[in-house]
Amino acid sequence: MMRLLSTKVGRLRLVGFLEGISLLVLVGIAVPMKYASNDPSLVKLMGPIHGFFFVIFVINALSVGIEYKWKFSEITWKVLLACMIPFGTFYIDYRILRRME
Fold first, then answer.
1. Could you read off the pLDDT of 74-97 as tens digits, one per residue?
2. Which of 30, 39, 56, 57 could form a disulfide with 43 if both were Cys (CB 3.0 to 4.6 A apart)?
């Protein structure tokens, strides 16, 4: 775990995991609960948590992209798009980020 946090790519991977989990909880549990049982409390809790991880992921992705001199048309757009798709951050971690460490 400490090795993961010692590099920018490692921190991006960790934030990507947290962002991905928060998106899945929001879309897969909180939103259906809101409409099935008319209970928006979990959406009110998870919405800001997911938003926080989303913003941190985008900032870290841009920072890593600049440091590693990613070409926007080859890597950066894929990483940024991944945080908007359920399971996207896990896929990007497996296909791109894990190989950079």
1. 899 999 999 999 999 999 999 999
2. 30
